[in-house]
């Protein structure tokens, strides 16, 4: 799966860095297809014939626990690490390749603390308080048992998490995000239509769809967590969530790998096109 942290900011190279995560087992599922697919991804993806961007894939070496508290504590430091986050290591974090560099990648150029005020009190048009993320974009992967198709989620929701996680916890009456002034719904700022078109071209034999309902469980929760961490730092939200079928046969996992890598390529090429269009303006 390659080194866990980018070696240098990607704006100096014709390549991008993407963070990918998968989930651990839960309920009566003895295996989670999202993690099996995530950990099988190639560490480097070459461009498709129509593309020009090489992609460095950084898979979190351990699956995310299907726990609200765990996701809320462990996902943000992967996206926007600070010195404060670095002092709160994940259990077993010494096993993670390059974790020190990922947690301190931006430390030299950012403040070691972050005020928990909405968007750091920044105006949406004000870029002075923006924090640079560790990765050019993020693809979270989760399992949708019973489905036979793949979906790219486009929006996450703040509330409604009443289903218990693996620790038996629910988020009934939770006000954490409300206290930050976070919106009820946050959407990806990837060009979802363009990404889906490119993704479909990459995976012509598979049923791939855009979706605006990630399900109000840990998939939706983790997606919103990633979106809101970008929002509160006044940073663009190049984040999506990939739902994959629950089958774990060798053939299904092979197909899932192809679909996931196709989505990563589609996003990279769509983002490259966006950058080119901005340059031409």
Could you explain how this protein is built, in words?
With 281 residues, the chain is an alpha/beta fold. The chain is built from 8 helices and 9 strands. The protein has helices spanning 33-38, 68-74, 76-79, 83-86, 99-103, 192-202, 218-231, 250-280, and strands at 15-21, 44-45, 54-59, 137-144, 150-153, 155-157, 185-187, 208-211, 239-245. It has a 7-stranded mixed β-sheet with strand order 2-3-1-4-9-5-8, with helices on both faces. A hairpin with an 8-residue loop joins strand 2 and strand 3 (54-59). Helix 6 (192-202) crosses helix 8 (250-280). The chain is globular, with a radius of gyration of 18 Å. Mean pLDDT is 82; it is low at 7-13 and 83-128.
What low-confidence regions span 5 or more consecutive residues with pLDDT below 50? Answer: 7-13, 83-128
Estimate the strand proportion: 15-25%
Order of SSEs: EHEEHHHHEEEEHEHEH
Give the averaged pLDDT, no decimals.
Answer: 82
The computed structural class is alpha/beta
In this structure, how is the largest beta sheet organized?
7 strands, mixed
Net shape: globular
Tell me the strand order in the biggest sheet.
2-3-1-4-9-5-8
Binned, the helix content reads: 25-40%
At a glance:
With 281 residues, this protein is α/β, with parallel strands linked by helices.
Please describe the structure with a list of short key phrases separated by commas or semicolons.
globular, 8 helices, seven-stranded mixed beta sheet, alpha/beta, 281 residues, 9 strands, single chain
Give the topology:
Blueprint: E1 15-21, H1 33-38, E2 44-45, E3 54-59, H2 68-74, H3 76-79, H4 83-86, H5 99-103, E4 137-144, E5 150-153, E6 155-157, E7 185-187, H6 192-202, E8 208-211, H7 218-231, E9 239-245, H8 250-280
Parallel strand pairs: 1-3, 1-4, 4-9, 5-8
Antiparallel strand pairs: 2-3, 5-9, 6-7
């Amino acid at each position: 799966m390659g080194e866990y942290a980018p070696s240098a900011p990607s704006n100096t190279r014709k390549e991008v860095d993407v963070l990918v995560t998968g989930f651990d087992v839960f309920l009566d599922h003895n295996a989670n297809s999202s993690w099996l697919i995530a950990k099988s991804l190639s560490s480097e993806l070459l461009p498709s014939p129509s593309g020009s961007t090489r992609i460095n894939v950084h898979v979190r070496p351990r699956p995310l626990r299907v726990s609200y508290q765990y996701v809320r504590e462990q996902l943000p430091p992967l996206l926007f690490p600070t010195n404060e986050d670095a002092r709160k290591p994940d259990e077993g974090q010494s096993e993670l390749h390059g974790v020190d560099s990922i947690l301190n990648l931006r430390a030299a150029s950012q403040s070691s603390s972050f005020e928990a005020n909405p968007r750091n009190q920044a105006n949406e048009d004000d870029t002075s308080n923006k924090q640079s993320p560790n990765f050019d974009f993020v693809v979270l992967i989760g399992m949708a048992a019973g489905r036979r198709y793949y979906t790219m989620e486009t929006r996450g929701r703040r509330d409604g998490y009443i289903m218990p996680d693996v620790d038996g916890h629910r988020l009934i009456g939770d006000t954490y995000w409300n206290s930050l002034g976070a919106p009820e719904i946050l959407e990806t700022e990837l060009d979802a239509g363009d990404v889906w078109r490119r993704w479909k071209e990459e995976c012509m034999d598979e049923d791939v769809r855009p979706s605006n309902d990630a399900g109000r469980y840990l998939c939706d929760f983790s997606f919103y967590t990633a979106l809101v961490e970008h929002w509160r730092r006044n940073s663009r939200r190049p984040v999506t969530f990939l739902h994959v079928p629950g089958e774990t046969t060798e053939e299904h996992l092979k197909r899932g790998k192809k679909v996931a890598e196709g989505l990563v390529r589609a996003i990279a090429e769509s983002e490259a096109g966006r950058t080119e269009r901005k340059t031409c303006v």
